[in-house]
């Protein structure tokens, strides 16, 4: 039985990846960061909790001894590094902590692999935020596009991306970067724009809220479904060579487009949307559209969910939960 260790197992992606790997026959271990409200911490992994309860361990990406203890004992076949302070706007408020979890955290894991489990294959959750406002002439970002980040989060992810490449070349560690564009689901944190829009719209429809307050409506993102993207993560580690791959849908939509679809579907007037400078970033990434042809050619991966199917699932989730 192959073993996998996931940092960030209770996050959006960690929870879907865990379900996917269990279905594929892996024994899955997970790292939990200590939280005072223990009972809330595992809600995304409740449906599989019994299968993995014995394999969950407290550790922290910034706490090297905690990582070394686990990696040297488990010696996992695959290590997926999904843990991070993953909110771009919050990274402007907490730049040091963001950098520590992402940059220092990634070095810590690679050092553990180097010293105590050199056969472990390593997946790094790299991000389209690393590109900043670089766009190729054809409107896409791809692996060769210059990476000039515009946020502390993007900058920390770029450091981690480079350190992965450096450890791969220097120490022959099987370490790959998945450069993932935005991916969403009903499990997305509600302070990310997609789930904020879906949830607030259902609240307005049910008379529980008056308005939706957003920041920049013109920003464009390449939004896919998290379930599709965790399949890509496993394919990247099972590819014959370690490498760096863009994972995206190849389509882009604005925040306004997202709102238009949700509000039209729920028959809510658009004047319920307001804007506030509170949600504007000091430095904004304007537009993302990823070319995933390298990943498709190497592994056969392509997205299964459409943009609208993904939004429909998010709306249905809130309709069920808010009516409860
Ligand atoms: P998420 O829902 O915010 O999950 C992040 C996970 O990291 C949570 O389990 C969190 O635990 C854990 N974590 C935070 N700080 C930690 C620390 N110091 N030590 C150990 N664990 C820590 O993020 P996601 O959307 O699943 O994304 C997964 C990864 O992919 C992240 O690295 C993110 O930056 C990257 N990424 C995401 C996207 C996207 O669109 N979703 C795109 C590209 C890259 P708690 O919940 O207990 O705090
Ligand atoms: O949903 P967002 O906060 O996601 P963002 O900043 O693109 O970051 C996500 O995707 C990255 C991949 O490119 C990941 F690496 C990262 O971990 C995270 O998962 O914001 C999307 C867009 C931004 O342009 C933002 O300015 O929506 C705009 N926006 C407008 N109003 C808002 C709001 N964003 C948030 N969070 N809240 C608003 O009220």
Q: State which percent range the strand residues make up.
A: 15-25%
Number of helices: 12
- Heterogens: NADP nicotinamide-adenine-dinucleotide phosphate, ligand G4F
Task: Give the neighbour order of strands across the main sheet.
Answer: 3-2-1-4-5-6-11
Termini separation (Å)?
40 Å
Q: How large, in whole angstroms, is the Cα Rg?
A: 19 Å
Structural class: alpha/beta
- Described by the principal axes of the CA atoms, the overall outline is globular
Q: What's the overall average pLDDT, rounded? A: 97
Helix content: 40-55%
Number of DSSP E strands: 13
- Main β-sheet, in a few words? 7 strands, parallel
Query: Which regions contain 5 or more consecutive residues with pLDDT less than 50?
Result: none
Order of secondary-structure elements: EHEHHEHEHHEHEEHEEEHEEHEHH
Description:
The protein is of the alpha/beta class. The chain is 43% helix and 15% strand. It is built from twelve helices and 13 strands. A seven-stranded parallel sheet has the order 3-2-1-4-5-6-11, sandwiched between helices. Helix 1 links the parallel strand 1 and strand 2. The chain starts with a strand and ends with a helix. The model has no long low-confidence stretch (mean pLDDT 97). Ligand G4F binds next to helix 5 and helix 8.
């Amino acid at each position: 039985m192959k073993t996998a260790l996931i940092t960030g197992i209770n996050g959006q992606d960690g929870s879907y990846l865990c379900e996917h790997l269990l279905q594929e026959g892996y024994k899955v271990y997970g790292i939990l960061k200590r939280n005072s409200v223990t009972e809330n911490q595992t809600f995304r992994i409740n449906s599989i909790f019994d299968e993995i309860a014995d394999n969950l361990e407290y550790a922290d990406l910034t706490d090297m001894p905690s990582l070394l203890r686990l990696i040297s004992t488990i010696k996992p076949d695959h290590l997926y590094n999904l843990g991070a302070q993953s909110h771009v706007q919050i990274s402007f408020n907490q730049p040091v902590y963001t950098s520590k979890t992402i940059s220092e955290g990634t070095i810590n894991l690679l050092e553990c692999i180097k010293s105590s489990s050199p056969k472990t294959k390593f997946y790094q959750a790299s991000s389209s935020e690393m590109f900043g406002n670089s766009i190729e002439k054809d409107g896409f970002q791809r692996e060769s596009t210059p990476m000039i980040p515009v946020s502390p989060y993007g900058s920390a992810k770029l450091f981690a991306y480079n350190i992965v490449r450096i450890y791969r070349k220097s120490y022959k560690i099987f370490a790959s970067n998945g450069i993932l564009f935005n991916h969403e689901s009903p499990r997305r944190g509600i302070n990310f724009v997609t789930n904020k829009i879906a949830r607030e719209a259902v609240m307005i429809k049910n008379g529980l809220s008056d308005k939706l307050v957003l920041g920049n409506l013109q920003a464009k993102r390449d939004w896919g479904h998290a379930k599709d993207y965790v399949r890509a993560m496993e394919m990247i580690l099972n590819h014959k060579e370690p490498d760096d791959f863009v994972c995206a849908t190849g389509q882009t939509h604005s925040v306004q487009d997202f709102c238009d679809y949700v509000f039209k579907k729920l028959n809510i007037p658009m004047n319920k949307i307001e804007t506030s400078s509170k949600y504007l970033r000091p430095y904004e990434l304007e537009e993302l559209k990823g070319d995933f042809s390298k990943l498709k050619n190497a592994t056969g991966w392509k997205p299964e969910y459409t943009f609208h199917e993904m939004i429909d699932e998010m709306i249905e989730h809130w309709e069920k939960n808010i009516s409860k």
